[in-house]
Write a structure and sequence with these properties.
Length: 385
């Protein structure tokens, strides 16, 4: 063997040995850290991130070979790291100092607004969902029901000055115009909201609109269906919470922003007359479940969150019966609708198992309102039949 070959072989052994030592040191560090956590009480839930944390993984040779144990071990160490919330916040602050404008789909906007990004969508899904809504409206029109589609804009579309400069966003005006051209009964609310851009229309730490934002959208809905909303002064405005942190706060990792407040808006007589049937034996006499104000997801104060079918008897005697097909944006909107209908049935397609078209025909509704946030509506296939 030549001298050159001997030197190359020795160099290769050094490189291999060095890599092996690095791997051994890294593995040893992870194991030491894991063993250090064995006596530490586990955190089950992260209030800041609004999610359940990884529990200690269970060892088995099969799970080790498949790689499942290693993946769960890594997640467990990350989730149970002492001072995790501080580390997450520190990482976010460093990212912002380096010029990063978003994290996990949330823009860091002006005046502490954490704004949900909307940078792309699937045109095929959007077109199919519109066609499905149009078909539902056509079928229920034969039973005497008038159909309306309301697609709520995101906060970034209503308050573009709060977005970071040159933030890439889908042009929602084009989506609303396409929906208006394809579906009779399209309700446009974006301009009514923009007229009040400086007001508290959307939560800063959550993607939903506030009660005030929902009120202005409700006014646009009534106006475009030949009716008129009562002035804001007619409503009782009750502050339900002043320490609300929503989903955007949990995703962004920016834990130094101040909390939101949650307000209810209702006519003085409505809470005393209506009943709400959640279909699981729960029948209540209010739209607001204040027990959720003591829990992490305070937005569920509005109608307890999302159920397959919720039936509201309002106490109004006008013979009008509304089918409301919805996502969570409607939960705040309903507090205004109870003044206009004798009965409201709310359907969430994520959990409703029956044929919506058949159910609607059987129930004899006078109106149908499909209400979704625009990003949700274009985000996944929805069957309205």
């Amino acid at each position: 063997m030549t001298v050159q070959r001997i030197e190359e072989e020795e160099h290769r052994k050094k490189e291999t040995g060095g890599a092996g030592k690095q791997l051994f040191v890294l593995l040893g560090a992870w194991l030491l850290l894991a063993f250090a956590f064995l006596g530490k009480p586990e955190r089950v839930f992260s209030e800041a991130e609004n999610r359940y944390l990884q529990s200690r993984p269970k060892w088995s040779l099969e799970r080790f070979v498949r790689g499942t144990f290693g993946e769960e071990l890594e997640t467990w160490i990350s989730d149970q790291l002492p001072g995790r919330d501080g580390w997450v916040q520190g990482k976010t602050l460093l990212s912002r100092a380096l010029g990063r404008r978003e994290n996990k789909g949330i823009y860091f906007g002006r005046e502490d607004y954490l704004l949900e990004t909307f940078q792309e969508y699937d045109q095929k899904i959007f077109g199919e969902n519109l066609a499905s809504v149009g078909e539902l409206f056509g079928l229920l029109k034969e039973t005497g029901a008038e159909g309306h589609l309301l697609l709520a804009p995101t906060a970034g579309a209503v308050m573009p000055t709060y977005l970071p400069a040159y933030a890439p966003e889908v042009c929602q005006e084009e989506l609303f115009s396409q929906a208006e051209a394809q579906v009779p009964g399209m309700i446009r609310v974006e301009e009514a909201l923009r007229e009040h851009e400086g007001e508290y229309l959307y939560y800063r730490t959550d993607h939903h609109w506030t009660s005030l934002g929902a009120y202005y959208a409700y006014g646009a809905f009534l106006e475009q269906t030949g009716r008129e909303a009562l002035p804001r002064e007619a409503y009782t405005e009750e502050i339900l919470s002043q320490d609300f942190y929503g989903t955007s706060y949990a995703r962004a990792g920016s834990y130094m922003v101040p909390p939101d407040s949650i307000m209810a808006m209702y006519l003085p007589e409505n809470p005393k007359r209506l009943t709400v049937d959640y279909g699981n034996g729960q029948i209540e006499e209010t739209l607001y479940d204040r027990s959720f104000l003591k829990k992490r997801d305070q937005y569920r104060v509005f109608l307890k969150g999302n159920y397959p079918l919720v039936i509201i008897e309002t106490g109004v005697k006008n013979g009008k019966k509304l089918l409301l097909v919805k996502d969570s944006y409607a939960n705040t909107f309903v507090q205004f609708l109870v003044s206009d209908y004798e009965e409201i049935q709310m359907v969430d397609l994520r959990y409703f198992q029956a044929s919506l078209a058949d159910y609607g025909a059987e129930q004899g509704f006078t109106e149908v309102l499909v209400l979704y946030q625009i990003k949700n509506f274009v985000g996944e296939p929805l069957s309205f039949l």
